[in-house]
Amino acid sequence: MTRPFLARLIDEASRPYRAAGRFGYHFSRGKLGGDCIFRELLRLGVFPDAARFLDLGCGQAVFASWLLAARRLYEQGDWPADWPAPPEVLELRGYELMAKDVARARAALADREPKVLIRQGDIRETDFCQADVVTMLDVLHYIDYAGQEAVLRRARAALPAGGLLVTRVGDAAAGLGFHLCDWLDRAVILARWRRPPTLWCRTLAGWVTLLQDLGFEVETEPMSQGKPFANVMLIARARGA
């Protein structure tokens, strides 16, 4: 049941990217089909029933399309019986630095989905406003240590008590698995930005401590299924005042 369903969900979520060109469409299919975090976010029921989402470093907004597609299939009665209901997206604001990714996101989603707003901007400087869920998937290690803390502090300020922050990080203490992730990320920097690759990584314990110090309760979930990496999803809930 689950494998055919996932194929339908990938089809539904990637279809809007036909309007964004060949690269946008094939990238969305590859990302959604090859990265386990999208499936696991739904299977684990991480999100509240209905929420305002803030996606920082959203790329071409495949996460937004994934959530919207999941909800459409659910409302049509096409959903695994052993999975919790996907969230209703009340609104989703995404910020992305790369202009080409923003253009593809707008062509696919923002020009036709009133719930989705995609803007170009540096998340170290943009106004987060308020949200129920903040997501930062594979973003933080591109920001220096002081910037990481500042972004996370502002993310906490954007959330109510009980609000959710979801991010994925590499565990710098994980040996070869981490080094494989690190080499891959450096290759991406060279290919996309044509600059010397610099990354700011932490151990898993370091990430958890940082989030706890900023006012979160943190759960961890391994997120490298089937791949020799050291990725971990951090599910952080904002503590009350």
Which features characterize this protein?
single chain, 241 residues, alpha/beta, Rossmann fold, seven-stranded mixed beta sheet, 42% helix
How would you characterize the overall build of this protein?
With 241 residues, the chain is an alpha/beta fold. The protein has a single domain (36-61, 89-238), classed as Vaccinia Virus protein VP39 (Rossmann fold, 3-Layer(aba) Sandwich). 42% of the residues lie in helices and 20% in strands. The chain is built from 8 helices and 7 strands; from the N terminus they run H-H-H-E-H-E-H-E-E-H-E-H-H-E-E. The chain has helices at 2-14, 22-34, 36-43, 62-75, 99-110, 145-158, 176-193, 204-213, and strands at 50-56, 88-96, 116-120, 133-137, 164-170, 216-222, 231-238. It has a 7-stranded mixed β-sheet with strand order 3-2-1-4-5-7-6, with helices on both faces. Helix 5 links the parallel strand 2 and strand 3. Helix 1 (2-14) crosses helix 4. The radius of gyration is 17 Å and the shape is globular. Mean pLDDT is 89; it is low at 175-179.
State the order of secondary-structure elements, H for helix, E for strand. HHHEHEHEEHEHHEE
> Can you identify the CATH class?
Alpha Beta
Number of helices, counting only DSSP H or I runs of 4 residues or more? 8
CATH superfamily: Vaccinia Virus protein VP39
Range of helix content: 40-55%
Largest sheet: 7 strands, mixed
In the predicted model, the low-confidence regions spanning at least 5 consecutive residues are: 175-179
> What is the correct CATH architecture?
3-Layer(aba) Sandwich
**Mean pLDDT reading:** 89
Query: What spatial order of strands do you see in the largest sheet?
Result: 3-2-1-4-5-7-6
